[in-house]
TrEMBL record:
Keyword Lipid metabolism: no
Name of protein: peptidylprolyl isomerase
One GO cellular component term: cytoplasm
Organism: Pomacea canaliculata (Golden apple snail)
Catalytic EC class: isomerase
Phylogenetic classification of the source organism: Eukaryota, Metazoa, Spiralia, Lophotrochozoa, Mollusca
Domain PPIase cyclophilin-type: 42-205, 216-373
InterPro entries per record: Cyclophilin-like_dom_sf (IPR029000), Cyclophilin-type_PPIase_dom (IPR002130)
């Protein structure tokens, strides 16, 4: 029978999934069995005028990475190249089928006829490795094979007849009571349209990223001291990229960022530096030689203050880097993100306000007059969010 349905990031969290029906059908809350969860998404729900609390979905990014990337981007809010923001926030659960499933994700029309992915309108089924083991499993809604967009559903019971027809990508790990409150909402048609609006008032990605080293830059603008910028580096996530950056930031005389300039300033976008060869954006080299490959794209451009490798195309990383001044998720998958500003966003905003010429070069020199690297005894966590502006 075919049925169609229209950071804090815990990088080391392991949640196991058992295939035993007896155990799984009885579970309404946190589960610990054997597929690694890579992310957690939180949704705040309002039914009519009543705030119902939140539920959290654990996501299986290693099993279905493309599907999870789409979901995470829509939870966080995905800005297209035209400036349009695609997001689940403010959208509704438009379909409630008691003892079966609840469905949401149509942020276009709110009735199950719309929705689209970050990849365009639709994208193919990634795989069917995960199954519908019981209540609380989360999968892509579709209108047939390879028609995934933004709509998703959450099961209210064991629905094994959907296995192989819908891509499962997550599981509710907290808040099944909220899911049950949604299930109990009165509907006004056989299609399951709720009488009262069931709204996602807010959604975000819970997560932490561990950092065990940071680099600091002392900056001058036109010869006047502007402040210090401290960048936490994700050496565990991108060790080779981190090693290159930290060596250049250490101030060692062989190859160093000390004395180099931020040669490119684009307000409300990014500032760029790190050309240790020519100082104008035309040069640079790494500690591995001239260029080195993209390590991975596990980290994204989550907001202002995220630090990534500048490049001239795939696998062309050297010494140049940039710091975002806003969320720039269209750069995800194109540049290796390796750090986040921990302190000094006010200094970066001063740089952002510096006058530039027609080629985005600052009229007054913006110079890293000193730099260094510090380590901590224990890794610390940062949120997958914009850097703090009030530092």
């Amino acid at each position: 029978m075919h049925f169609s349905l229209t950071f804090l990031l815990c990088l080391s969290l392991a949640v196991l999934v058992t295939g035993k029906k007896k155990k799984e059908e009885s579970q309404e809350e946190d589960s610990d069995d054997f597929v690694e969860m890579t992310h957690k998404a939180r949704f705040y729900i309002k039914i009519g005028d009543k705030e119902m609390g939140d539920f959290i979905v654990g996501l299986f990014g290693k099993v279905v990475p493309k599907t999870v990337k789409n979901f995470i981007s829509l939870v966080e809010g995905y800005e297209t190249e035209t400036g349009e923001v695609l997001t689940y926030q403010g959208s509704k659960f438009h379909r409630i089928l008691k003892e079966f499933a609840i469905q949401a994700g149509d942020f276009e029309f709110g009735n199950g006829t719309g929705g689209r992915s970050i990849y365009g309108k639709k994208f193919p089924d990634e795989n069917f490795k995960l199954k519908f083991y019981g209540p609380g499993w989360v999968a892509m809604a579709n209108s047939g094979r390879d028609t995934n967009g933004s709509q998703f559903f959450i099961t209210l019971r064991h629905t094994k007849w959907l296995d192989g027809k819908h891509v499962v990508f997550g599981k509710v790990v907290h808040g099944m009571n909220v899911i049950r409150w949604i299930e109990m909402t009165k509907t006004k048609s056989v299609d399951g349209q709720p009488v009262e609006d069931v709204v996602i008032t807010k959604c975000d990605i819970l997560g932490v990223l561990e950092q065990d080293k940071w680099a600091w830059f002392d900056i001058t603008i036109g010869g006047v001291y502007a402040g210090r910028v401290v960048i936490g580096v994700f050496a565990r996530t991108v060790p080779k990229t981190a090693k290159n950056f930290l060596h250049l930031a250490s101030g060692k005389p062989d190859v160093t960022y000390k004395g180099t300039k931020f040669h490119r300033i684009k307000p409300n976008f990014l500032i760029q530096g790190g050309d240790i060869v020519n100082g104008d954006g035309s040069g640079g080299r790494s500690i591995y030689g001239n260029k080195f490959p993209d390590e991975n794209f596990d980290l994204h451009h989550y907001g202002a203050g995220w630090v990534a490798m500048a490049n001239s195309g795939k696998d062309t990383n050297a010494s140049q880097f940039y710091i975002t001044l806003k969320k720039t998720n269209w750069l995800d998958g194109k540049h290796v993100v390796f750090g986040k500003v921990l302190h000094g966003m006010k200094t970066l905003r001063k740089i952002e306000l510096t006058q530039t010429d027609e080629k985005d070069r600052p009229v007054q020199a913006v110079v890293i007059v000193d730099c260094g690297v510090d380590s901590v005894e224990r890794p610390f966590a940062v949120q997958r969010a914009p850097a703090e502006e009030n530092d």
